[in-house]
């Protein structure tokens, strides 16, 4: 329920900063119709603002497109190039939430995702993993969330036909967030 109070989750209202060292923003896409390619972005920043209720909370994030990493240098160079992200022209991807709903364990985060200067509304389905104070006194919170997008809707249309039919890269891309935030002082 969007009226769930933040305090009932063990979280505190206010600003929470993205913990890049303990987070991953990744993707999965079908390759040649037979396998999945996984990758992640290694440079990003996000802020979680918690209000009194989930409905009064928000998230903003900016990802450096050039930080794309799938573990294969040739593929990474291709995806950073003009056929896909065109990082020289479109250096960042962004997300700005517009609604948060759900309860203390399961939530939906809806917002505007921008890739290649094309903005579409997406909804992440997520889980709250809990809150803990680390040995250094920092209060941390963890979340997981996923959404599926059509890469073509964001101008990512490059593809190659396979001899047996079908295409090299699927249109469907699953975005996975496994993120941590630290409560700001």
Give the tags.
185 residues, mainly beta, Lipocalin, eight-stranded antiparallel β-barrel, 1 helix, 11 strands, 4% helix
Descriptive account of the structure:
The chain has one domain: Lipid/polyisoprenoid-binding, YceI-like (Lipocalin). The mean pLDDT is 89. The chain is mainly beta. It starts with 13 loop residues before the first strand and ends with a strand. It is elongated, with a radius of gyration of 18 Å. Strands 1-4-5-7-8-9-10-11 form an eight-stranded antiparallel beta barrel. The chain has one helix and eleven strands; from the N terminus they run ββββββαβββββ. Helix content is 4%, strand content 54%. The longest helix is centred in the middle third of the chain and has 8 residues.
Strand order of the largest sheet: 1-4-5-7-8-9-10-11
| Radius of gyration, taken over Cα atoms and rounded to an integer in Å | 18 Å
Mean pLDDT: 89
Which second-level CATH architecture applies? Answer: Beta Barrel
Report the strand count: 11
What secondary-structure arrangement, pairings included, does this model have?
Elements: E1 14-18, E2 24-31, E3 35-41, E4 44-50, E5 58-64, E6 68-69, H1 73-80, E7 92-102, E8 106-115, E9 118-133, E10 139-150, E11 169-183
Antiparallel strand pairs: 1-4, 1-11, 2-3, 2-11, 3-6, 4-5, 5-7, 7-8, 8-9, 9-10, 10-11
Pfam families: YceI
Protein name: Polyisoprenoid-binding protein
Domain Lipid/polyisoprenoid-binding YceI-like: 15-182
């Amino acid at each position: 329920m969007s009226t769930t109070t933040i305090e009932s989750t063990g979280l505190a209202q206010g600003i929470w900063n993205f913990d890049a060292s303990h987070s991953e923003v990744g993707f999965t896409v079908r390759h040649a119709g037979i396998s999945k390619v996984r990758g992640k972005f290694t440079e990003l920043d996000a802020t979680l603002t918690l209000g009194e209720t989930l409905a009064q909370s928000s998230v903003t994030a900016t990802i450096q497109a050039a930080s794309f990493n799938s573990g294969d240098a040739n593929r990474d160079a291709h995806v950073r190039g003009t056929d896909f992200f065109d990082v020289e022209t479109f250096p960042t991807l962004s997300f700005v939430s517009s609604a948060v709903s759900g309860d203390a364990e399961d939530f939906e985060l809806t917002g505007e995702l921008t890739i290649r200067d094309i903005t579409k509304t997406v909804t992440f389905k997520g889980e709250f993993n809990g809150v803990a104070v680390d040995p250094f006194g920092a209060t941390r919170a963890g979340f997981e969330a996923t959404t599926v997008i059509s890469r073509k809707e964001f101008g990512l249309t490059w593809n190659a036909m396979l001899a047996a039919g079908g295409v090299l890269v699927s249109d469907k891309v699953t975005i996975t967030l496994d993120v941590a935030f630290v409560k700001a002082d």
